[in-house]
Specification:
Elements (H helix, E strand, L loop, with lengths): L12 E5 L2 E3 L7 E3 L3 E5 L5 E4 L11
Antiparallel strand pairs: 1-4, 2-3, 4-5
This protein binds zinc ion (ZN).
The site of zinc ion (ZN) has 7 residues, from loops.
Protein backbone atom coordinates (compact mmCIF):
# COMPACT_ATOMS: atom_id res chain seq x y z
CA UNK A 1 0.00 0.00 0.00
CA UNK A 2 1.35 3.46 -0.81
CA UNK A 3 2.18 6.03 1.83
CA UNK A 4 -0.32 8.73 2.71
CA UNK A 5 0.67 11.81 0.72
CA UNK A 6 -1.99 14.05 2.21
CA UNK A 7 -0.29 16.64 4.41
CA UNK A 8 -3.53 17.42 6.27
CA UNK A 9 -3.79 13.77 7.34
CA UNK A 10 -0.55 13.87 9.26
CA UNK A 11 -2.24 14.32 12.69
CA UNK A 12 -4.07 11.05 11.96
CA UNK A 13 -0.87 9.05 11.39
CA UNK A 14 -0.08 6.32 13.88
CA UNK A 15 2.86 3.97 14.33
CA UNK A 16 1.59 0.40 14.22
CA UNK A 17 4.99 -1.29 14.61
CA UNK A 18 7.89 0.89 15.71
CA UNK A 19 11.35 0.04 14.37
CA UNK A 20 10.62 -3.65 13.90
CA UNK A 21 8.73 -6.09 11.76
CA UNK A 22 6.80 -9.27 12.34
CA UNK A 23 7.96 -11.84 9.88
CA UNK A 24 5.78 -14.76 8.86
CA UNK A 25 9.01 -16.61 8.10
CA UNK A 26 10.15 -16.86 11.72
CA UNK A 27 6.82 -17.66 13.31
CA UNK A 28 5.63 -14.08 13.63
CA UNK A 29 8.28 -13.01 16.08
CA UNK A 30 9.24 -9.37 16.42
CA UNK A 31 12.45 -8.62 14.57
CA UNK A 32 14.25 -5.31 15.18
CA UNK A 33 14.46 -3.17 12.06
CA UNK A 34 15.31 0.36 10.96
CA UNK A 35 11.80 0.50 9.50
CA UNK A 36 8.49 1.23 11.19
CA UNK A 37 4.99 0.46 9.94
CA UNK A 38 2.76 3.52 9.83
CA UNK A 39 -0.95 3.85 9.22
CA UNK A 40 -3.11 6.83 8.32
CA UNK A 41 -6.37 6.57 10.24
CA UNK A 42 -7.89 9.16 7.88
CA UNK A 43 -7.51 7.40 4.50
CA UNK A 44 -6.38 3.92 5.58
CA UNK A 45 -2.98 4.06 3.90
CA UNK A 46 -0.26 1.90 5.46
CA UNK A 47 3.44 2.03 4.70
CA UNK A 48 6.87 1.24 6.05
CA UNK A 49 9.49 3.91 6.50
CA UNK A 50 12.72 4.61 8.35
CA UNK A 51 12.31 8.39 8.09
CA UNK A 52 13.15 10.54 11.10
CA UNK A 53 9.57 11.84 11.42
CA UNK A 54 8.52 8.49 12.89
CA UNK A 55 9.76 9.69 16.28
CA UNK A 56 7.09 12.44 16.16
CA UNK A 57 4.20 10.05 15.43
CA UNK A 58 2.30 8.51 18.37
CA UNK A 59 1.77 4.78 18.72
CA UNK A 60 -1.53 3.48 17.51
ZN1 LIG B 1 -4.10 9.74 4.74
Amino acid sequence: MPACKERTHRPAWRVVVRRANYSAFNGGRRTPSAYSLLRCTECGAAWRTKAAYVSDIPNG
